[in-house]
Write a structure and sequence with these properties.
Number of domains: 2
Bound molecules: zinc ion
Largest sheet: 7 strands, mixed
Structural class: alpha/beta
Number of helices: 14
CATH architecture of the largest domain: 4-Layer Sandwich
Number of strands: 21
Radius of gyration: 22 Å
Low-confidence stretches: 458-465
CATH class of the largest domain: Alpha Beta
Length: 465
């Protein structure tokens, strides 16, 4: 501990999910995030393992944002005895409530289903009571206003990734330690730009896209508009598998804006996701977390996330009705990676129809249904059925909620010439590539080692967004 502190990573080191970093000064122990491992089965299994640190020794928790790969094991931490404060933005608490309750419900349904089929089932990782106990420990923080955690001074800054997302500057003696959290991109749409990295001695930086740049944003939106025009000509459905948090609201915002600009025809738009409709209420309540563009639309009296013919489906019967109809319409449903959820029913019913368009707007892991569609599979299996793929499948790259390589380098430079960086939250190739570029401009850079053993093939699987 020759710097006066140690940082150990128990997740999101050499991989993108399971974010969990421990800052240990010898007298104070602060945990930054406690996220779920996602992606492959082997990675998911890590969620049941011991954390690798003593839960009773943790004095305070800083939570960067409400994505499950950052908050998803927080109820497990509380279930295993953590009773201290969890510092986060109010928007993060509101979103975490919906996401964690939904996760608890899905785990319970999975366990019940397995039981009915007489299969051996893992018990749920946590239940609604654990979620409620976790929410009760959350303490609201302001951006830019220092607060105290475990006797250390902490300041949150805007990360621009999802509503409530924050990075943290922690002062340890005379040294300044930054935890980036997930850093948003600088394109002009739903989220504001991230605040630049504060001057620091040590920076733990996310590296999801440390080795590549995103597609040009204007070209992405042009392509998005083209898909709508072509689908309207085909008189078929546009099916959009989407994450309930962030990607769904982004897609709705772009549809509404393109309709306003009369660049696409007005079509019925169904959001077939109860979770997404709950997330939408948080966006409406947290306008101060969103970009100037979004606020300008809201100030003019319109809902920035409401295309003209928007409907949130409420019941399973509503969902079935849309599914059974051949009306040209846009259907946005989860899960974003097509690993479950209502999107599977829509795909099963319409993939064989050449009028249908499947618009893929998020990352699809190797081996999954989404990846098979991206790769041009002629037939796929959905819920035990063999389905021919006659639909048009279009992948829209460039809607990521993360900074790309150029933006990560620009974000990190203000840390200063004596800053030393530790790369986390990335696949090994991305971590290494970003470390090399940061080192090339004269700052210290190293890939942060993991304190826990990761499944070998799990490293190639991505689940975090
Ligand atoms: Zn995230």
């Amino acid at each position: 501990m020759n710097e006066g502190f140690e940082i150990r990573s128990y997740g999101a080191a050499m991989t993108v999910t399971g974010s969990c970093h421990l800052l240990d000064t010898g007298t104070a122990r602060v945990l930054v995030d406690c996220g779920a491992f996602q992606g492959s089965r082997d990675l998911f299994a890590l969620n049941r393992d011991p954390f690798g640190f003593d839960v009773a020794s943790i004095d305070a928790v800083l939570l960067t944002h409400a994505h499950l790969d950052h908050v998803g094991r927080m109820p497990v931490l509380v279930k295993r005895g953590y009773e201290g404060p969890i510092h986060c933005r109010p928007a993060t608490r509101m979103l975490a409530e919906h996401l964690l309750l939904d996760a608890a419900k899905l785990q319970n349904e999975d366990a019940e289903r397995a039981k009915r089929r007489g299969k051996q089932a893992d018990p749920p990782l946590f239940d609604e009571n654990d979620v409620r106990a976790t929410l009760s420990l959350m303490r609201p923080i302001e951006y830019g206003t220092p607060f105290e955690a475990a006797g250390l001074t902490v300041t949150a800054f805007v990360a621009g990734h999802v509503p409530g997302s924050a990075g943290f500057l922690v002062e340890v003696g005379g040294r300044r330690v930054v935890f980036s959290g997930d850093i948003g991109n600088e394109r002009k749409d739903v989220m504001p730009d991230p605040a630049p990295c504060p001057p620091a001695d040590t920076v733990l930086i996310e590296s999801t896209y440390g080795d590549r740049d995103h597609r040009d944003f204007e070209a992405t939106i042009d392509e998005f508009a083209e898909v709508f025009k072509e689908a309207a000509r085909r008189k078929g459905k546009i099916l959009i598998p989407s994450f309930a948090l962030e990607r769904t609201q982004d897609v709705l915002f772009h549809i509404a804006r393109l309709e306003d600009q009369e660049r696409i025809p007005v079509m019925p738009v169904y959001v077939d996701s109860p979770l997404a409709s709950r997330v939408e209420t948080v966006y409406a309540a947290c306008m101060d977390e969103l970009s100037d563009d979004v606020r300008a639309v809201a100030a003019s009296g319109r809902d920035p996330f409401a295309p003209r013919r928007l409907t949130y489906t409420k019941t399973v019967d509503d969902s079935k009705r849309i599914n059974a109809s051949d009306e040209p319409a846009v259907v946005i449903a989860g899960s974003g990676m097509m690993t479950g959820g209502r999107i599977l029913h829509h795909l099963r019913a319409h993939l064989d129809d050449s009028h249908t368009t499947v618009m893929i707007v998020g990352f699809q892991p190797t081996g999954g249904l989404g990846r098979q569609l991206v790769d041009g599979a002629a037939r796929v299996r959905i819920m035990g059925e063999d389905i021919p793929v006659n639909a048009r499948v279009v992948t829209i790259n460039g809607l990521s909620a993360h900074a790309d390589r150029t933006e990560l380098l620009r974000w990190s430079e203000p840390a200063g010439p004596s800053a030393s960086f530790r790369m986390v939250h990335g696949e090994p190739t991305s971590l290494r590539a970003l470390a090399d570029q940061v080192a090339a401009r004269g700052q210290g850079a190293a890939v942060q080692p993991s304190e826990i053993a990761l499944p070998e093939h799990g490293r190639k699987d991505e689940g975090g967004e």
